[in-house]
Amino acid sequence: MTLRGREAWGPVLMMGLLQSALVACLPWLIERTELSAGVWSVIFSVGMLPVLLVAPWWGRLVDRQGARRIARWATLLVLAGFALVLGVLLADIQGGLAVAGLVLARLVHGLGAGGVFPAAQRLAVAGATTDRWSYRLSRLQMAVHAGRLAGPALVILAAWFQMMAVLVTAGLLALMLVLGQIRPSTTGEPPVSPAPVDKSGRLPWGDGWPLYIMALLVTCWVGALQFVLGPVLTGMAAVSAETGSSLTAAALVLASLVGLVFGPLVHARCRGVVLMSIWGAALLVAGVVLGSADSIAGVYLGVGLLALGAAVLSPWYGSRLRQCQPGAQGEVAGRLTSIHTLGYIAGTLCGGWLLESMAQSALTPFVLPAPALILLALLAGRVTDRGRTTG
After folding, report:
1. CATH fold of 7-182+206-390, please?
2. Residue 330 has what pLDDT?
């Protein structure tokens, strides 16, 4: 398999598998540990803090030391964090000790996760011309969605097998992905030109700052939905926690399938304004459907539309940011990873707050992000054009 195939896809496939498995079984985790949804939102959010802080540093290491080496170390840390989660659950630890163990596990996970995406994205766009970057990034998202598909698909099996056995299986599959990646390779990474820096020695934000805000907003939206999805579907269907986990897993499987198929398909065939029109329309309708959903089918429809819009949007702004600063592939990816993580932290905390303060209408605020994203995209176009004119 090629460099961009095995070594770029493997780490993000592993990340998607482990993370989505935990998200899909959230109702079961709440019941197993006797910790509230709010506490779990804090646990997930605290585990994202290392990603927020170290991803730019990982990105600089990717540019200096090579993406392949960083990917190997980062994936091992992610796997160690998941093993610690399994240890807490297998030992049936409760109360404050469980919270401490789970927080530690998520911190270790976060240290590694901060390096996975910068390394994988650097490998994915290596050797491609700038007009192909969005397509390459959309293809990398296929691995993300494949992992997010595999995790919930495993959790669905909990309807017939014990949830603990399903999570252990997820960990073993992730270990196989890591071991399959750690092999000597004779394929070299193409060099990049030195990145422009400001007087402080740091990469400037440049003309792409509205795109960074878009990255923050869309991940906040997705993070909130992922966290509220399980409890909302469980309450809407009036079923047990394990059945609710299966309903949640089915919704996440749907989202992953939509992203897996339509993200690369749209980017392979569309360019420019057409791309923006597609993700904008999909997100606008998704917000309306989710905000007014009163049935499981309505929630599933909103989830599918949001997955379509996000699958087109993320490579769109990722490619534009790299074109603003083409000499800093790793650092731009690290900065994006940090901002995405901040969005997921905010979204997870918002999700916990929504479940505890307005559980019966937790999806209502989801009508708000899409219009803001479209306005930011228009602003990004004007800022970029102005920079090209004055530059």
Report:
1. Growth Hormone; Chain: A; (1.20.1250)
2. 75
